[in-house]
Amino acid sequence: QLQLVESGGGLVQPGGSLKLSCAASGFTLDDYAIGWFRQAPGKEREGVSCISRGDGSTHYADSLKGRFTFSRDNAKNTVYLQMNSLKSEDTAVYYCAAGLYCSGSRTTSRIVWGQGTQVTVSS
């Protein structure tokens, strides 16, 4: 069974940091492009970042460059999203997804989604 499990969300003050994890089971993460998405209440789901299969090149939404960093640990079959200088507008449910390719900050041909983890940025 293909599965992705996110963790690491929570409540953080503006300017703070969080590190999200996305662990895979049933398949090897490095064989897929992995994307982080987020969805805020009343808004469409948007692509945050994508890491390509193989070479591990990373792609970010323009508005997030410099604050978010996507990394992959093949030994742990886990990817991470380090989020710094968080703002209230970063509040959303964050999801990871596995697909075939990165198209900008989004994965394409997605085959599996995680259940999501809530990130709330508030004082």
Topology (elements, then pairings):
Layout: E1 3-7, E2 10-12, E3 18-25, E4 33-39, E5 46-51, E6 58-60, E7 68-73, E8 78-83, E9 92-99, E10 101-103, E11 106-108, E12 112-113, E13 117-121
Parallel strand pairs: 2-13
Antiparallel strand pairs: 1-3, 3-8, 4-5, 4-9, 5-6, 7-8, 9-12, 9-13, 10-11
Instruction: Please state roughly what percent of the residues sit in beta strands, choosing from under 5%, 5-15%, 15-25%, 25-35%, 35-45% or over 45%.
Output: over 45%
- CA radius of gyration: 13 Å
Broad shape:
globular
- Report the strand count: 13
Q: Determine the mean pLDDT.
A: 95
The ordered string of helix (H) and strand (E) elements is EEEEEEEEEEEEE
**SS-based structural class?**
mainly beta
User: Total number of helical segments?
Assistant: 0
Largest pleated sheet: 7 strands, mixed
Ranges where pLDDT stays below 50 over 5 or more residues in a row are: none
Helix content: under 10%
| C-alpha termini separation | 40 Å
Offer a few descriptive terms.
7-stranded mixed sheet; 123 residues; mainly beta; 4-stranded antiparallel sheet
Structure description:
The protein is an all-beta fold. It is built from no helices and 13 strands. It has strands at 3-7, 10-12, 18-25, 33-39, 46-51, 58-60, 68-73, 78-83, 92-99, 101-103, 106-108, 112-113, 117-121. The strands form three sheets. Strands 2, 4, 5, 6, 9, 12 and 13 form a seven-stranded mixed beta sheet that branches. The radius of gyration is 13 Å and the shape is globular. The termini are far apart. 37% of the residues are buried.
